[in-house]
Amino acid sequence: MKKRFTYTILLIFLVGIFSCNRINNTVEKTPNILLIVTDDQAYGDLSHTGNSLLETPTLDQLAQSGVFANHFYVSPVCAPTRASLLTGRYHQKTGVSGVTRGREDMQLDEETMADIFKSFGYRTGIFGKWHNGAHYPYHPLGRGFDEFVGFTSGHWSNYFNTKIEKNGADFQTEGYLTDVLTNEAIKFIEDCSSVEKAFFCYLPYQTPHTPLQVPDRYFNKYKQKGVDDFNACIYGMCENIDDNVQRLLEKLDQLEEKENTIVIFLSDNGPLNNRFNNGLKGRKGMLDEGGVRVPFILNWPKINDHGKEIEASLAHIDLLPTILELIGKDYEFKNKIDGESFAKLITSNSEMKKRKIFGEWSGKSRVLSDPYLMVGEALYDIRKDPNQEVNIREQNREIYQQLKDDYQRWYGELQLNQIENKAIPIGYKEYPKSVLPAHEANLYPPYEFRKDRRHTGIAYHSLYGWAHDWIDFWTSEDAYPQWKVEVVTKAQYAIELQYALEPENVGVEISIQIGDQIINKKINQAYIHKQYPNYDRVERSQEAPETNWGTLQLGTLELQQGIKVVKVRSIKIPGNKSIELKSLKLIRQL
């Protein structure tokens, strides 16, 4: 009887523990992570940082109820910052050296946040701009993400009712793109919450990057404040971001996930144009403060020190180790990371040890050894002179020389492994459709960026050949585009062409050569493409517009494994020019 009584008490005790854990399961759950990264949003593009015109109440409150890092540094352009954020490593080590033509591809041996959090059991999703590799397995679905809605390129051509990608398929959107991406992120969060699965939701918005498109109510508001068209659109996009962050926070609250979600907000680099930036020198593409110092907010109700402002110098490479420490996870990195956790700056009054933060872009150098900042040939005391008005190099030659030597040592140890003219991988069963976009082709004869493109024999429609541009002004039968590809699987591949052709030029004969295989095709069907409705507030100067395209099935080829060159030739041009070429698609037949 006594033994049975003891068992009963023990059972009641265990049931009580189980019940308490059920009631307080928010304490036991693995923390969620919501990482929001905006595109070209300046340090001064928040009312929290002193912008008297801009209204960002949600982000202001997020900072005031959480932690704001006042000296947070990134790279001066998009793809490098994203590579460092995702890996905790300087972007040069990841193989990312630029923003186009494969230079944005992150090497495949790099481990991303998504890889790491997925190994802990998280569901991982990205909603927005990737910009670390367009072709699988450089694509998000090959880098640890379970779900992808967005685009892989460095910018998008149209923000209204556009066609992006959803898990490898075309996805026609309705409405303003930033709102659409938020809708998709919310669905992802709802799905994870419904099955009590911790999530890593990466939300890299495409705004306030150009093109300058924003809904009327935002644009009109800032026009009424007397702001010029360019900045009225920029500020409108920033306020729209703020509204979408509010929607995300409300959803977390509704799902009872807010207390258990670490929300992080930052930008990828400084502003495109010279606008209010709290006096910081420089802008996007520069290593001065205005190009690389961005707003950074971390908010987690579980550990918040309300309104805490961190003055230590922090960087994008620090974010990954910081999150790992906050969620109490250890990870054995395959590649040594460069960042250091600043979690204790958030959770206590600890200080980070003194260190140097390095930067490099287009052959220029930057070293921050707080309070000293070396940028190229200049030296500043960034605490006394945050706007870099006084070069103190002559008075501090020893300090300058030491930082210069430190930079040379750092740069010399990077072991850069950037491969020029990378082969585009095709034929993975996980991603059977491979697109060879016109803007990634090499044009022959070698293309010169001449405004008078009609006399070059072949050129890009919008001069520079940025993402989404196409091949135009193709008047020479000796001119052609080519791509280098790597066929990873021997198989039959359907060949598909995206093109436009004016009626007077019908009869163009083209030749597609892949290695030693050739398809010839006479094009007897005209296709006049039209630009989608123009929502630009300010006329774009370099980016190609979004248009519709004709599709032509060319047949199939059996391709062997290996590196091959793909050439598209106009072997007969009966009219005044050949086709306008948007892309060539190679679709593995399973």
Automatic annotation (TrEMBL):
InterPro entries: Alkaline_phosphatase_core_sf, Sulfatase, Sulfatase_CS, Sulfatase_N. It comes from Marinifilum caeruleilacunae. This is Sulfatase N-terminal domain-containing protein. Belongs to the sulfatase family. It comes from the Bacteria. It holds the Pfam family Sulfatase. Residues 31-328 form the Sulfatase N-terminal domain. Keywords: Calcium, Hydrolase, Metal-binding. SUPFAM superfamilies: Alkaline phosphatase-like. Gene3D superfamilies: Alkaline Phosphatase, subunit A. CDD domains: ARS_like (cd16146). Coiled coil: none annotated.
